[in-house]
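A reminder before we start the practical. When you read a complex entry, don't treat the lines as separate problems. The point of joint prediction is that each chain is placed relative to the others, so the output describes one connected object in space. Small molecules and nucleic acid strands, if listed, are placed in the same frame. In the example below there are two entries. Take a minute to note the order of the lines before looking further.
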Amino acid sequence: MKKIKKIKIKVNGKVKYLMKDYQLSDLLKILKIPLKKVAIELNEEIIDKKNINKIKIKKNDKIEIVHFIGGG
Amino acid sequence: MEVASLKKDNLIIANKSFNSRLIVGTGKYKSMSECAKAIKLSGAEIVTVAVRRVNIVDKNKPLLMDYIDPKKITYLPNTAGCFNSKEALRTLRLAREIGGWKLVKLEVLGDKKNLFPEMIETLKSTEVLAKEGFKVMVYCNDDPLMAKRLENSGAEAIMPLAAPIGSGLGIQNKINIQIIRKQTKLPLIIDAGLGQASDATIAMELGCDGVLVNTAIAKAKKPFDMALAFKNAVIAGRQSYKSGRINKILMGKPSSPLKGVI
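Here is the predicted structure of the whole assembly.
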């Protein structure tokens, strides 16, 4: 059986293995994250949420997904 | 004579008008529902929120936005936990991206123990953020000179501490707060260090435009009652300030007329 190729990335500091050719939007779908309530950073650059369908995830990408929590 | 305190007396920040002069933090509550109820009772229309990583492991964790509707309550993203300008700018740019938030609370800390603001980094950040179109409410020291510099750098509101964050000590330097009040037309909001409702009244009586409270409500034995107490205390302090207090004298002056004493 042919081994499925996966790429290693980091999401919010945690290592994750993803199928090749995933878009940023696919990752959000897998993680069940509501786009409206978050902001996304790809390799320390803020992503315009309108473009997440166009951004392909590459090997060793560092992705940060943040939202609002309680704070003073 | 008309009763001034019955007239509309809104807090204006960045051209937005708010009925309540109490801003509350959303941290340190036992649960989201407790937080939401306390906010409701406090009457606050602005709440501070922190920007943090989404929990990608536990996807069922409740979200703040499910409990506090950002359409009804103004979210004020903060930079709590940031110790330099770079971190603070990153945090607020992300906050803006979440949903267009431009009104933000800048807080750059300088010391992990006392949590005092690092004012050089704060000043640098204020300049950058103002240029990027943010409306920056700035947590700062109770230093009139620094407050002036923040104002000149484009701050939208000056938010000096009463005492260290979470300390509950109340206003430690009334004179400085009054000096800052005299020198600025910007909204002046006491941020951090209040312990009980009367501290908020004192802040308002010094002429502050509002107060920001988190721990004193969230960690009170009865947070809901304390939320209500702070609401009333802010209203009382504001009305008292607007009413024009009597002069202080060192001697007694009888309240009842002496004429006709038997």
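Discuss with your neighbour: Chain A touches chain B at residues 11-14, 31-34, 36-41, 44, 46-49, 64-72 (CB under 8 Å). What might explain this?
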